């Protein structure tokens, strides 16, 4: 927080600060950040979760993701934890894909993106309230390219994974 900024709200997850600027006051949402992971099966399917998102009032299909919270965990540990919690799968391999600021005009939220390989079957049940979906990697990349993936972290992870793989199938056999 800059010296002249003032905190106007502190919640469980976010803080809101008001920053004076020459052109007027600017609201800034402080967010702990998040990690998300694109899991790929040996058959080349991506694992997605369908869950209700209160902020938009509807269900959304997306890759597993979660907050970097008070556990002081790093982004990779967070991604691995969310993969396990939301899908029941544990990663075999996991690598950093990239990241992004979700909306730098008003928040400092940064989302770390990972690509993981998983087994064919889960190690446990998915988190209650989530529906696990399997879709072919190529089908989902095509959907992202066509603008049919409404969740930005999912679309970006798919496109970054495709670029990383150089057009090869992500199947690990």
Give the count of helical stretches.
3
Distance between the termini: 49 Å
Percent of residues in helical segments? 10-25%
Shape: globular
Count of beta strands: 10
Structural class: alpha+beta
Strand arrangement, major sheet = 7-4-9-8
Q: What characterizes the major β-sheet?
A: 4 strands, mixed
Give average pLDDT, whole number: 92
Low-confidence stretches: none
List the secondary-structure elements in sequence, H or E: EEEEEEEHEEEHH
Please state roughly what percent of the residues sit in beta strands, choosing from under 5%, 5-15%, 15-25%, 25-35%, 35-45% or over 45%. 35-45%
Report the C-alpha radius of gyration, rounded: 18 Å
Would you kindly provide a written description of the structure presented here, covering whatever features stand out?
With 173 residues, the chain is α+β, with helices and mostly antiparallel strands. The longest helix has 14 residues, at 152-165. Helix 2 packs across helix 3 (152-165). It has three helices and ten strands, in the order E-E-E-E-E-E-E-H-E-E-E-H-H. It is globular, with a radius of gyration of 18 Å. Strands 7-4-9-8 form a four-stranded mixed β-sheet. Strands 1-2-3 form a three-stranded antiparallel β-sheet, with no helix packed on it. Strands 6-5-10 form a three-stranded antiparallel β-sheet.
